Structures are given as C-alpha cells and as structure tokens.
Amino acid sequence: MKYSTFLLCSLVALLLLSACPQHTANPSALKPRIEKFHQAIRWKDFSAASKLLAADKQALFLNARLHSNDINNLSITDYELEHAEISDDGTTAVCTSRISWFRLPQVQEHSALVRSYFVWENKNWYLEHQEQGPFPELAPPGLLKPPEVGLQSPRARN
Predict the structure, then answer these.
(1) Assign residue 138 a region: left if phi > 0, alpha if psi is -120 to 50, beta otherwise?
(2) Are 46 and 62 a contacting pair, CB within 8 Å?
(3) How many angstroms separate the CA atoms of 120 and 108, rounded?
(4) Domain range summary for the chain, segments of one domain joined by +
(5) Following CA atoms 85, 87, 92, 93 in sequence, which dihedral angle do they give, to the nearest 10 degrees?
(6) pLDDT at 143
C-alpha cells in the first residue's frame, strides 16, 4: 500500500513538473548570441546570421543579402557590444552595439549605434529587429527605412 501511494505521488509530481512551461530566459546566453551574430555578419556568413534571427525575418534577411549582393558589397569593419539589458519578465532584451561598415559602390565608412531587440523563444535568444545599421529590412515595425548613415568615422574623412 505504501509503495503504491509513493509511486502515485511520484508520478503526479513528475507530471506537474514536466507541465511547467520552460519560458525562463537564460541571461548568460544573450552575450554569446550577440557576439555570434556580429561575427557572422563580419565574416559574411549570412546563412549563419539568418539562423540567429526570429523565424519570420530569416528569409527576408537572406533575400536582402542576395538582392544587395552583400557577399561582395558589404564589409563590416568593426563592431563592439556596448550594453545589453534583459526585460523584467526575461522574454526580451535590448542590446546596443557600435557597428562600422561600408557598402560598395560607396567607399565612405559608416558607424552607428545599433539597437538590437532580441526575444527569448524555444530556449534561445533570437534577433527580432534592429534600429540603425546596415540592414534596413530589420527595422522595427512602423519605421519604413532606418537612417543608413551613422556617425562618420575619422578614417572616412581622409
């Protein structure tokens, strides 16, 4: 009798624990995810970069890279994560990075503070949209086209 009661209680506890949603974000996974995106775009691995985007943005991002011929025309010259903050509920994050780039045929280097908005889904962080930077298709909803020209770097003034 005691064994069957123990077994029943154990099964109920196991079912209750397994039914708990796994929506808790992993804050320590955010910075490596941002760095992975930065590295992928710097080395023109747009396929890898697209896999770090929200599902509804992946095809749009890859099509824009093809249309702009970014494998040949876009060069990310520098990037640096400056700040990252996770929302109180742990489901979103806003990250600020300084990104420098140029896109041929222009030879002027652009530099901008880029705000990236991440969402926690399927136990990972995914880039949902960006303000500023070299990827206008990632602009937040309601912003038709983000300014592409950021602060001019000293190297571009010469």
Answers:
(1) alpha
(2) yes
(3) 36
(4) 25-157
(5) -10
(6) 60
Distance CA 57, CA 128 (A): 7
Which pLDDT score is estimated for 44? 98
Tokens representing residue 39 in the block: 């590295």
Give the residue from 74, 25, 26, 28 showing the smallest Cα distance to 49. Answer: 74
> If you average pLDDT over every residue of the chain, what do you get?
83
- In angstroms, how far is the first alpha carbon of the chain from the final one? 86
**Can you tell me the mean pLDDT for 95-122?**
96
126: three-class secondary structure by DSSP: strand
Q: Which residue has the higher pLDDT, 1 or 142?
A: 142
Say which CATH architecture domain 25-157 belongs to: Roll (3.10)
pLDDT digits (tens, 9 = 90+) for 76-103: 999 999 999 999 999 999 999 999 999 9
